[in-house]
Amino acid sequence: xxxxxxxxxxxxxxxxxxxxxxxxxxxxxxxxxxxxxxxxxxxxxxxxxxxxxxxxxxxxxxxxxxxxxxxxxxxxxxxxxxxxxxxxxxxxxxxxxxxxxxxxxxxxxxxxxxxxxxxxxxxxxxxxxxxxxxxxxxxxxxxxxxxxxxxxxxxxxxxxxxxxxxxxxxxxxxxxxxxxxxxxxxxxxxxxxxxxxxxxxxxxxxxxxxxxxxxxxxxxxxxxxxxxxxxxxxxxxxxxxxxxxxxxxxxxxxxxxxxxxxxxxx
Length: 266
Description:
This protein has about 270 residues and is of the alpha/beta class.
């Protein structure tokens, strides 16, 4: 082989190798509640998702659409495009406290490798004052978030805190307003304190839903279903917290876009 071909082959190898190894971690962990959960991944063991739960879809479930090489190349400073994997541990009804008490946090902590990403979204269930089994007051909420962020840092991972994704209420004069209030602010306090990466998903999702309008958002994004359309909901459903597939995909796209922004700051 002549010298020019040798140099070309070496250059080609280095380029390909750099594309594969430029990324940081191998895994994106998701921890949170039902709005993030993956209902299709044996969520109810032994049951058919399409018969028992569909079309409910967590945005973490829809995030799978971004876990492909072409998409991951856009965040290669955060995750290795050819080796990236998604581990979604989100579960319905969980607050920062119950997620820890049930051992779900430990299952993440024991797997974290240096530079892995841990995306954390709670608040919906922490704020449930009428459900003592999951309720966490503001100070407790902040303490658990502080603990999670510190623990991820201790494993040399990258914690990313999210404000809770918006519910489909209250609407006023064509604009979706904030229902999370103090729990939204609590997340921001911990972000300011720990200087961890941050996605204001509450604000971003409210802006998105407002741009689509109340009627479109209610009918296509949230679980407001007519009777007789889905096997799992023969009587229909009125649910302005959980997503249909289109809503979950839209929120997942917001999160991915924010990961692009975050990686540029590294």
